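Can't attach files on this board, so I'm pasting raw text. These are the components:
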Amino acid sequence: MIATFVATGVDGLAFGLLLFTVAAGLTLIYGVMGILNLAHGSLYLAGAYLAAGMADGGLPALGLAVAAATLLGASGGVLLDHLTRPLTGDQGHLSQALVTMGLSLLAADACTTLFGAAPRPVPPPTVLDGSVHLGAMGYPVYRLAFIIVGAVVAVGLHWMLRHTTTGMTLRAVIADPRMAAATGIRPTRVRTGAFAVGGALATTGGVLGAPILGPAPGIDTTVLALSLVVVVIGGTGGVLTTLAAALLVGQVQTTGVLAAPLAAPFALFTVMVVVLVLAHRTSPQVRLR
Amino acid sequence: MSTSHLTRIRATAPTGPPRRIVGPAIWATAVAASAGLPWLVDGYTISLASNALILALLAASTHLVGIGGLPSFGQTAYLAAGGYTAALLAQAGTTGAAPHLAAGILAGVMLAVATAPVVLRTRGVIYLMITFAVGQLAAIAVAKSTLLGGDEGLTLPPMTVPGLGELRLDGHLYLCVLAVACPLLLAAGWITRTQVGLRWRAIADHEPRLAALGGRTTRDLLTAHLLAAGIAGAAGALLADAHRYIGPADLGMDVACAALLACAVGRGRLTATITAAVGIVAVRDLLGAVTSGHATALLGAVFVLVAYQHLLRRAPSRPAVAPPAGGRR
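---
Top answer:
Structure tokens for the assembled complex are below.
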């Protein structure tokens, strides 16, 4: 019984890190210009279908798929940036959200047309297939590998934001775009960069996450909804709180379902209530410390 | 405070006599035409008309919070509460239309009481974000719940109406939906013209100012939130009874999108919102069939167009310093 919970907990860790990869991109895009990218789930789905198309069981194919996904996500992000840029004014943010929503509906239709309505299982590379036995339970190797990759992404992002010039530029633009512009930073360029990185994170998450949460119609909405929950819960603090929120949501969605199948879906909502009420927040302000 | 373009005010001030006659005349004509529909068109079109009325109710629900400046993506959660409550009641043996409706409304309002502490803390895009999460969490929750039939959903026995017995024909079901939807839509239109309705519009315009004048803005928005949830709950009960089925697909993102889109097209006018909802169902289900099932893409394209059309309409008026006559602020 305990072994089952431990195994599910490992699953939840992998799922949480997957959500982190997607939600970090969402936070980045929201943080820089306050744009709510509702097409973020579609980027994940595109990455997952890319993995389904390119996977042949070898590691080189996976590497190629990751490279292609990075390119695809970055271009998707730049495209979104250009499409949302003209929408300014006091209702600009809402219009921007509506545009990304419309694009995600178009993308969902395109995906169903191209790849059909049936879910596509994506097997992990053969090297990472199978499971390791520790004690009574077997752990899928791919999930363990994903945990390592996810942890590297988290540490890398945190380090990038805290200790590099790029990260400082980004934080400056988030804190005060006008002052940043006065010091010679070009906020529009930073904005495009944030969109590209955010998009690339989502599609890469899709490629690497495909064996865990595979491509199917509706997955875009699920990923988007869970990522939004992560952003709402982890909003104020930056990479570390986003990570904590993602791990929490990951555990609720796996261990929580195992412990209390009926209550688990409502647990996420309860967590949102508790966090928002306790923190007495009115909005998740992204500071990316 | 950012205001929503769902909330553009057209004519809130008392209008002159011609309009007072024209408005109700249009309504009366529309209702008469709707009531005559079962004798004019085939069964499939009639079931689409029922869907249109249900979406119109959901759009009216989105409209009620929308004119308070809150763009909701999650009214489907309250639709789910109402629909599943009606379905469970029907399966337990209570097949009457009236108990379903009452229970549906109550369930919607009760869920809204639970969500209020979260969603009413937020405004603007963050509100959109949280309501989206709430709506989709509801869809995920029902899809996983064995009590609520999971992915399969719940099927209902035919509903009964006192004096008429079981309703099975599409035409009868449609007339029943119409009989419930009309008073609810009229009530929604009426409440937006009362004092609290004007306060909602004031909140959308400039909440801090109204708060500074002593307005209890969150309490007013709570009223809108609860009323909207009640209407969505009623829509859910009607949906379950009209389809004799409710499932996770009825709460999908496309449904939430369609309701918000109708509001965005309506721009703060309920009649326009209802017309838009009917138009969306027509485009989605009639035109979608012609384009071999690309209804989602059509919906998405309209979404993008609406967002940019708003931009095009605003752009030339920007240099003008004077506010438009009868405008805001």
